[in-house]
């Protein structure tokens, strides 16, 4: 059975008890430093000391994925880098379902201070810092010795739909990937798609992309109409919607439903925040969708590897780790969230064990 260790306590203190080079990846959704919903734990991004401990317990070449807020991403990335990590990339999770939190600017008498002027942009993305513990030698040598250092490309390719498969043809002739062709002037050696009833134009693409799916990109979206209309070819990116009620509450059948915390300005979330308008068994305010966390865990964790989440919250990373067949170590300071995380993770582990049994 997959191993799960969940600790209730301060992450820095717990991290110091873990052995050097004992985990394969860190996938976490830490505090953004925005004082979200007035919660004390969100008044700053994690310190350099926390990230330095994550670096110590990671194997050489191990990857770190850490969500951040757009206003504090720079502080998150700098502290991760100052701890000794190499910044490898930034993944953007783009969504169309965010709500503006400020609205128009009004005075004490609720009259507009200036017509049509507001206080903030509509939130539409969350950045994810992608970092790596420095290698010892080459990537290949690190993979052979520790299992870490590379990313799981084929396990995270974005499948092409039937339309794409008709539109694109494998690049077997040395042409530049993405080059356009037409039946009137096809590239030498290319069989065009005139015979399948499709348009007489298309693009050449690497054969792996046609047969296996597109190479994973540093952009993920939620599949909403707003985003797909914005992106001319949204199908080339992995997509995942925000966490549904069923996803949030899976495994929590015996828990009491509660409202999420009130906003930091003292206004009740029920009246002013559509995200918290109904009571939830999982009342953690920042639950990430399981499909997104599964994708991220799969991207950076070697087979049967151990994932660490020092900011476990309600256990979304742990749930994803179970469903992907990984081991998991979680740390969470708030006792009420630890109980929610344990229940969600255990439910996922039972699902995975059931799937494995059925497949034998």
The CATH homologous superfamily of the largest domain corresponds to Vaccinia Virus protein VP39
As a whole number of angstroms, the C-alpha radius of gyration is 23 Å
| Average pLDDT figure | 81
Count of distinct strands: 12
Keywords:
nine-stranded mixed sheet, 12 helices, Rossmann fold, 360 residues, 29% helix, disordered C terminus, three-stranded mixed sheet, alpha/beta, 2 domains
Tell me what the structure shows.
By secondary structure, the chain is an alpha/beta fold. It folds into two domains: 4-157 and 215-359, 3-Layer(aba) Sandwich (Rossmann fold); 162-212, no CATH class. The protein is 29% helix and 18% strand. It is built from twelve helices and twelve strands. The strands form two sheets. The protein has a nine-stranded mixed beta sheet with strand order 1-12-11-2-3-5-4-9-10, sandwiched between helices. Strands 6-8-7 form a three-stranded mixed beta sheet. Strand 9 (219-221), helix 7 (225-230) and strand 10 (238-239) form a beta-alpha-beta unit. The longest helix is centred in the C-terminal third of the chain and has 25 residues, at 335-359. The radius of gyration is 23 Å and the shape is globular. The model is unreliable at 171-179, 188-201, 262-276 and 356-360 (pLDDT under 50).
């Amino acid at each position: 059975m997959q191993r799960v260790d969940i600790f209730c306590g301060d992450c820095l203190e717990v991290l110091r008890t873990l052995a050097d080079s004992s985990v394969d990846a860190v996938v976490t959704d830490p505090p953004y430093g925005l004082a979200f919903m007035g919660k004390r734990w969100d008044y700053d991004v994690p310190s350099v000391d926390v990230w330095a401990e994550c670096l110590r317990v990671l194997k050489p070449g191990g990857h770190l994925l850490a969500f951040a807020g757009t206003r504090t991403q720079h502080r998150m990335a700098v502290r991760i880098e100052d701890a000794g990590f190499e910044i490898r990339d930034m993944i953007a999770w783009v969504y169309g379902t965010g709500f503006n939190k400020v609205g128009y600017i009004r005075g004490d008498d609720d009259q507009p201070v200036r017509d049509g002027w507001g206080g903030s942009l509509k939130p539409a993305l969350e950045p994810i810092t992608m970092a790596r513990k420095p290698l010892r030698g080459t990537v290949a040598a690190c993979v052979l010795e520790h299992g870490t250092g590379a990313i799981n490309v084929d396990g995270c390719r974005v499948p092409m739909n039937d339309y794409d498969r008709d539109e694109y043809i494998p690049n077997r002739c040395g042409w530049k990937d993405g080059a356009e062709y037409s039946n009137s002037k096809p590239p030498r050696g290319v069989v065009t798609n005139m015979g399948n009833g499709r348009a007489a134009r298309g693009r050449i693409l690497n054969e792996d992309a046609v047969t296996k799916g597109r190479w994973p990109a540093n952009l993920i979206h939620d599949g909403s109409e707003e985003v797909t209309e914005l992106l001319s070819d949204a199908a080339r990116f992995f997509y995942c919607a925000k966490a549904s009620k069923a996803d949030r509450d899976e495994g929590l059948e015996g828990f009491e439903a509660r409202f999420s915390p009130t906003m930091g300005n003292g206004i009740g979330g029920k009246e002013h925040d559509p995200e918290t308008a109904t009571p939830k068994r999982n009342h953690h305010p920042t639950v990430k969708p399981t499909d997104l966390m599964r994708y991220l865990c799969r991207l950076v964790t070697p087979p049967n590897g151990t994932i660490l989440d020092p900011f476990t919250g309600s256990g979304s990373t742990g749930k994803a780790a179970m469903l992907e067949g990984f081991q998991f170590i979680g740390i969470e300071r708030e006792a009420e969230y630890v109980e929610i995380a344990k229940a969600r993770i255990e439910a996922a582990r039972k699902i995975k064990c059931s799937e494995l049994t059925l497949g034998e």
